């Protein structure tokens, strides 16, 4: 007898889904973006892992392409005062929801585990600011890190980019845009990235309902982000559609086995490998989309960040610290 996909889930993933069934929330697509943001902001603290202390945390506002852009800057424990490695972290949320607080614990973990400086931008959200506003803000944030490297205490030639879900999408696009630059990102650390806005992969059908992020919610997010259907074919929305991935940054890709984005994550990893981009793929077969933001309910979230840092250390021989 074939096992039900639900029976193959890790215990912590089943627990999270059980919590959702016990107190069902209205689907994002049943309301407005403002309502979705409020619901998400009320709910994410229940899932976040420990907000561990960092050496320092400040917010800074810079001039962005669409107006003032807020950056949250984390210095990890024991980070050197100069020439430290740095990470630009781009939060997930379907380009519509999410903010600096929703992914705060992940940024703290990266800062401390990697011994680095993390910069997280409060990039513009859709539908008020459609594609390519978010990627423009991410480009501006990376440029700021390079120009102000001395002030930040970082090495402008040792900046990596990371992100989850829609943030993973933005990270892949940013790395593709930067691949001809002298100071291109040294690594891309991707958690269940969105790489194909056509949403036709098999995992969209296998896990369409009942595994957290649904196919209908993902379509709602995408449709708020794009300007029109032609944007789906633009590689800056669907990096899997890029003609070539050659020359982009070495990549770590974390894939959740019970996730509508699983197949496009696998497909992107295969394209990177075929383009001879150094790549490490780690799979969590029993996990669901968003598990790296669910540290309150089990160890998988922290394990994934540890794995990403270990990969980053391997890509950058100058690293002196390994993941714990």
Blueprint (SSEs and pairs):
Layout: H1 11-22, H2 33-43, E1 56-64, E2 67-75, E3 84-90, H3 104-114, E4 117-121, H4 133-147, H5 149-152, E5 154-164, H6 166-178, E6 188-191, H7 202-206, H8 215-225, E7 251-258, H9 262-274, E8 279-288, H10 300-315
Parallel strand pairs: 3-4, 3-5, 5-6, 6-7, 7-8
Antiparallel strand pairs: 1-2, 2-4
Keywords: Hydrolase
InterPro entries: AB_hydrolase_3, AB_hydrolase_fold, GDXG_lipolytic_enzyme, Lipase_GDXG_HIS_AS, Lipase_GDXG_put_SER_AS
Pfam family, one: Abhydrolase_3
Describe this structure in words.
The active site is at 165. Residues 87-292 form the Alpha/beta hydrolase fold-3 domain. GO terms for molecular function: hydrolase activity. This is Alpha/beta hydrolase. It is built from 10 helices and 8 strands. With 324 residues, it is of the alpha/beta class. The protein has one domain (5-315): Alpha/Beta hydrolase fold, catalytic domain (Rossmann fold, 3-Layer(aba) Sandwich). It has an 8-stranded mixed beta sheet, with helices on both faces. The longest helix has 16 residues, at 300-315.
């Amino acid at each position: 007898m074939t096992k039900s996909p639900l029976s193959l889930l890790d215990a912590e993933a089943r627990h999270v889904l059980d919590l959702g069934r016990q107190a069902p929330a209205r689907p994002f697509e049943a309301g407005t973006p403002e309502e979705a943001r409020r619901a998400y902001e009320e709910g994410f603290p229940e899932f976040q892992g420990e907000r561990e202390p960092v050496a320092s945390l400040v917010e800074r506002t810079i001039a962005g392409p669409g107006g003032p852009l807020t950056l949250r800057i984390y210095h990890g424990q024991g980070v050197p005062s100069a020439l430290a490695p740095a990470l630009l972290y781009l939060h997930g949320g379907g380009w519509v929801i999410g903010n600096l607080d929703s992914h705060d614990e992940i940024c703290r973990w990266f800062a401390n585990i990697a011994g680095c400086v993390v910069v997280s931008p409060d990039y513009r959200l859709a539908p008020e600011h459609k594609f390519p506003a978010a990627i423009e803000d991410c480009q501006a944030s990376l440029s700021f890190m390079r120009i102000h490297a001395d002030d930040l205490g970082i090495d402008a030639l040792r900046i990596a980019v990371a992100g989850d879900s829609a943030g993973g999408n933005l990270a892949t696009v940013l790395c593709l845009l930067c691949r001809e630059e002298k100071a291109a990102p040294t690594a891309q650390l991707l958690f269940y990235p969105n790489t194909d806005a056509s949403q036709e992969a098999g995992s969209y059908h296998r896990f369409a309902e009942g595994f957290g992020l649904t196919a209908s919610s993902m379509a709602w997010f995408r449709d708020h982000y794009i300007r029109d259907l032609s944007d789906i074919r633009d590689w800056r929305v669907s990096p899997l559609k890029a003609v070539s991935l050659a020359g982009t940054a070495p990549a770590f890709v974390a894939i959740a086995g019970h996730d509508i984005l699983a197949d496009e994550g696998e497909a992107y990893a295969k394209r990177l490998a075929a383009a001879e981009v150094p790549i490490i793929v780690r799979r969590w077969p029993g996990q669901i989309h968003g598990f790296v933001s669910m540290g309150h309910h089990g160890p998988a979230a922290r394990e994934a960040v540890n794995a990403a840092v270990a990969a980053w250390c391997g890509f950058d021989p100058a690293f002196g610290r390994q993941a714990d």
